[in-house]
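Sorry, explain these tokens?

***
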Amino acid sequence: MIVLEYSHINLACFTAGAQFCRVLHEKGGVIVYVQNNLKFTNIDLSEYCEEKDFEACAIKLTITSINICIITIYRSPTCNFNYFLQNFDKVLQLLYNPALHIIICGDININYLTENEQKQVNNLLLMYNLTAIVNFPTIINNSTASAIENFLWTYPALRIS
């Protein structure tokens, strides 16, 4: 029997709107919690997911006539980067619509302050008119700074307050 790792988490006034839970590996997956008073639709992305390589879930909701899609993604630092990129592209192909505001958040374990893999991710995002809005260090210690942990992309320009 599979026990969902989030099943013991109870957030007052929120429900699990979408999730991808690992089966083969412990401690992982992604989830989107939605405030109980909001109507949403779960988007099944399970056919694109592979544990650690591309973990994703998504919801669609409408708030004051604005259609929004929220996608949450996790990529392990040791994953197959090409698999990640291919499936990220497939998900964007599936969901992209010029009338839909897309918000992507999560942890893709790419240092966004360096040029290697982030250039390929940026090129993919540009194909869908998505813009990275976290371009500052999210991890700072005594000797280094990186933007690895968190990211957020949005299309079209959407004010988040």
